Amino acid sequence: MKNIFKIIAILFGFSVLIYSCDKDPDKPVYDLIESPETGAVLRTISIDNNLLDVFNPESAFKVTLEEQDEENGALMENIEVLVAFNDRTPDNGTTPPSEAMAKTIPASDFSSGPIGLPRATVSVTFGEAVSAMGLTEDDYDLGDIIVVKFRLNLTDGRSFGPESSSSVLTGIYFNSPFQYNSLLSCTPPPGDYVVKMFDSFGDGWQTDGGNGGSGITVVLDGSTTIEVGMCSYHEESDFECTGWPSGQGENECGDQYCFFEAEAIVTIPEGTTSAAWNFPGDQYGEIRFEIYAPDGSLVFDSGDFGETGAGLLPFVVCAD
User: Fold this and answer.
1) 191 strand-pairing partners
2) Sheet holding 111-112, edge to edge
């Protein structure tokens, strides 16, 4: 691998596979489609880690899944876990796309979840993925993508996977994409990261909500979450605004158009092995932000106002 620091533009687009679980007209799927096909889904409960440390073969992509079929899980035979490589860093040469089987998980590895359906946390390590695809260090670099795909096999011979997906219920109850992107990353430098935030309209941030919303979240080692953001004129929050129009102070401004800038600190402790930065979105296309590493270098610039969409922020900073 040639570089230990990159800023990468990555598209995280998923399609969603949806089939009905039974013929109860009260189910939400029946509100949207008139003649649903009976089948099965793997519903995403949570993505527990989507960063793979290229220097640690045991670093693992993890997702918690819930299986649902017309017999409430009784038809599941197994899940095949496939991995595919997506080369996003042509500086070290272009590695052709590849796909391979990483493992098979039997239905017996699932246990009954809170609503009586089979549920399990499924993982695939970086070492398992590159071994399955036959990749070497010369083939991948920081910022490349390993796509983790699932194929759900039923006891009656039917199978479901990404190729049979549709966008009927994107983001609603089932949330069953059958594939996920995992970013090749590394151990981040510890210290204070400065997040500078801006709003072009002057009424503060509206991210995933019209009157304010969530901030940027940083998930450390897949468990600890730090959240920072910019205040909004429209609702109270713990976020702050520190910038004011030229020549005016806070007391002189006095209306909703005073909320232009903010700055926050994200402290990554010593011993942290991964940090996933996520942006909740931009309701009105008025937001931009910059992230600076502990050494003062700019490591991520969201671009023009409204340019960055919701999701995992595609930048990598590695400790020496």
Assistant:
1) 268
2) 40-49, 60-69, 118-125, 111-112
CA dist list (Å): 66 to 109, 114, 118, 168, 176? 12, 10, 6, 19, 9
What span, in angstroms and rounded, lies between the C-alpha atoms of 268 and 191?
A: 5
pLDDT tens digits along 190-230: 999 999 999 998 888 999 988 889 999 999 988 899 999 99
| Element spanning 83, H or E | strand 76-86
Distances (CA, A) of 212 to 174, 220, 239: 27, 24, 10
Contact between 293 and 189 under an 8 Å Cβ cutoff? The reply is: yes
Per-residue pLDDT of 27-65, as tens digits, reads: 444 333 343 455 788 999 998 888 999 989 999 999 999
Domains, the chain, ranges and CATH?
5-185 (2.60.40.1940), 191-317 (no CATH)
